[in-house]
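Handout, page 2. Input:
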Amino acid sequence: MDLDEPREHVMSAASSNREIKLAEIISPQTTRARVAVNSWQEATEFAGELLVSAGKVHSRYVDAMKRVLQEIGPYAVIAPGIVLLHARPEDGVIEPCLGLITLATPVPFGHPENDPVDVVFALGAIDKHSHILALQQLANMLGDELSLMKIRSATEDGELYDILNSQNHVIAE
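Output:
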């Protein structure tokens, strides 16, 4: 089977109806600290390629994330210095995932108020609903100044993963 052939939504319908937790979609393979890039395009490619290398999305998903930003604009820059990249499930998501890179030097994404960006998340969702709990947990974490400071100051990949995977920001189900 060609890996670039569509085989999105590998999970069964029954499993995709349950809410997915943040700890279930982040992995050490999709987390990198202090990445050196020169543009939003390079940041998007780097974050996306982590998901591709982990077998979570097809390579065309990375292009789709860039296309979304070009066509719709920098709405994905959700807070000062933070972008949540994503595209549609049918653009190449194999299984739910989240990548995180922090940037050695912030880069502009074109947002008038929230640029430049130094925290880059790349989300791969298999549908419109199952990832909502994970996003709530992520928002809770990003709303905590101490957690955000730890994310931004992490210098090692493992340290960054541990911060994101901590149980300190779990939302009751």
